[in-house]
Amino acid sequence: MRIKVLGSAAGGGFPQWNCACRNCAGLRNGSIHAMPRTQTQLAFSPDGVVWFLLGASPDLRSQILAFPELMPPAGEPSGTPIGGVFLYSADVDSVMGLLHLREFQSFFLFATPSIQKTLQTENRVFDVLHRADPPVQWQTLSPGGRLACRFGEDPSSPPTFLCSSIALSGSYPDYLSTELRRSLPSQEAVIALRFEQSGKSFFFAPSFPEISGEWLKVAASSNVAFLDGTFWSDDELLATGRGHKTSREMGHVPLSGRDGLLAQFPSDSATRKILIHMNNTNPALDENSAEHRAVLDAGFEIAGDGMEFTL
Ligand SMILES: [Zn+2]
Predict the structure, then answer these.
(1) Exposed (0-12), middle (13-18) or buried (19+): which is 210, by Cβ within 10 Å?
(2) Interval between CA 9 and ligand 1 midpoint (Å)
(3) How many angstroms separate the alpha carbon of residue 254 from the centre of ligand 1?
(4) Residues 6 or more apart in contact with residue 49 via CB below 8 angstroms
(5) Could you tell me the distance, in angstroms and rounded to a whole number, from the CA of residue 228 to the centre of ligand 1?
């Protein structure tokens, strides 16, 4: 399995266009040692030819153009090696990129029934995806369930890869009507995904509001885990004057503190732990900071755009 990080920042990217925090200003004027980052986007390929996207970031068009493996195949008037998109939430930052994929192209879209309903009933702009012939094909992800994905026409052949969905206790985005939000089951709002092929696996959860045994066990038994690295501390947005909510109220467990991710992830796990979805206010983005050093000392890595490896 090939895995490519096309984007590693939280919503807004790094630097964020209207942000003058220490990090964003420092990146612009060169006073901190940090890499710019586009908004979180992962791609993986089970065979080196067909690629799947995890989420669809607002930066998706430029991220596709920056990765030659996602170019249209030669010899056809149009086409794409992108076979499908797995949606893990209905947040703007994880679905907006679908609008970049609207040019009469068919592919599979994997999502929970509630995320499908959100995009299909309250956001008619996504109907542009159905103009392709055949239209985009929706596939259902059931939290707690496992989906077998098979290349080729032979239903008796072994699956090419498996995808497990794990419910996270996230909430639906603010843009949903109160009526729809009340009618949707909470376990379908935000999910973690785990992909397995030939005994190797990776886990992807760029957003979780709490640490629960259920997903932690799955993450800690995967070869690689991409984990929510959004905020360093619970009061980060308040302290930087960038917001009025804590990290947890925003749906993200902070990295630091006794109940933070760095301390809570099982220390005896052999999993390669990679932080992703880094908010531009996170002091760990500054590679000369004590927070950056603390992340590395805790055995974690920080994803950067362009990071790539094979499992
Ligand atoms: Zn900033």
Answers:
(1) middle
(2) 11
(3) 17
(4) 81
(5) 18
Going from the Cα of 20 to the center of ligand 1, the distance in angstroms, rounded, reads 6
Give the Cβ contact number of residue 158 at 10 Å. 7
SS3 304: coil
Residues 122, 111: Cα–Cα separation, whole Å = 16
Is 6's pLDDT higher than 90? yes
CA of 24 to the centre of ligand 1 (A): 4
Q: What is the pTM of this model?
A: 0.97
If you count them, how many residues does the chain have? 311
**Contact between 204 and 227 (Cβ < 8 Å):** no
Question: In degrees rounded to 5, what are phi and psi of residue 119?
Answer: -75, -30
Paired tokens of 40: 């979180």
**pLDDT one-digit tens code per residue, 121-155:** 888 899 999 888 889 999 999 999 999 999 988 88
Residue 296, C-beta contacts closer than 8 angstroms, at least 6 positions apart: none
Distance spanning both ends of the chain, measured CA to CA: 5
Query: 22 C-alpha vs ligand 1 centroid, how far in Å?
Result: 7
The structure tokens listed for 129 are 């995806």
| pLDDT digits 0-9 by tens, 7-25 | 999 999 999 999 999 999 9
Sign of CA dihedral 134, 136, 141, 147: positive
User: 278 CA distance to ligand 1 centroid (A)?
Assistant: 11
